[in-house]
Amino acid sequence: MTDLQAILVKAITSYVAESPLGRLKDIDGSLMWDAPLVSFADGDDPLFSLYKTVVGEFHLTPREAMATHPKLAAGAGPLQVPHVAVVSWVLPTAERTRRSNAEMTYGPSLRWNHTRFQGEDFNDSVRRHVIGVLDEMGYVAVAPVLSSQFKTMYQPDIASTWSERHVAYTAGLGTFSLSDGLITARGIAHRCGSVVFNDACVATPRPYSHYQEYCSFCVDGSCGACIDRCPAGAISSVGHDKRKCREFLSVTLAEWGKQPGFIGSYAACGLCQVGVPCEAGIPG
Fold it and tell me: Has residue 231 been placed in a domain?
């Protein structure tokens, strides 16, 4: 790990622990997240090019994502940057929130709902914090999710132009599950974030050889707990039906999200991420 990488790990870890934005301000003021996981990927890792096939041709490479930065747009393009690196992090959902949602069978708990929306606002603030740290040190940094190029695509399937989970997989943070979530050393209940910057880095080794290696069902069919936990019936032995899941969130749970205290554009759900063997760690 380079000195810069160590600085970024400390900056992210400290910010998650200390920022008041990371607390459930409208519930009890407790932290939304446990200590984060932070890893790094080489911006020219071949996996990023592969995602144009796996996710969609629209999925950005780190160099393409950097093209939105004013310094690169006005001068030398991203292809002229000698080195590109990606810092990726996972924010594990706090245990109390996981426990509250594990008790639910149809819609999310209030704590989970707030963590979904205020938690992603906080995740955006982590992105901006990391960019600020890098800017002060003279680096060019971009959070692809906050850039003008970020959007959700609906054909042929629902996906975005920058998948934080795929980036985290590249950075050695975890592998995919039957439900499409990312199983990490701290489990599947989390949110991911990343920032691209112009420097060489020591890439975090990927301690797995298959993209579904941590999912017990995908390995030997011995689990499938997320199938039973999904109130929408959107998870089956063949995988996760994104459209069915989305319809349940936006239509079926519309009234659930109108309960007193609930926030956001929809209720959220996350039942498949709790009350399952991969909730807080790698099964087995």
Answer: yes
Instruction: Note whether 150 and 162 are within 8 A (CB).
Output: yes
Strand partners, 141: 197
* Torsional class of 219: left (φ above 0), alpha (ψ -120 to 50), beta (otherwise): alpha
- By residue range, what is the domain housing residue 154? 3-273
Whether residue 47 is contained in a domain is answered as yes
> In the chain, at which residue ranges do the beta strands (DSSP E only) sit?
37-42, 85-92, 141-142, 152-153, 159-160, 174-176, 182-184, 190-197, 235-236, 239-240
- Report if residue 113 sits inside a domain: yes
User: What length is written for the chain?
Assistant: 284
pLDDT tens column, 116-151: 999 999 999 999 999 999 999 999 999 999 998 899
User: Helix crossing, 95-102 with 110-136: angle to 10°?
Assistant: 150
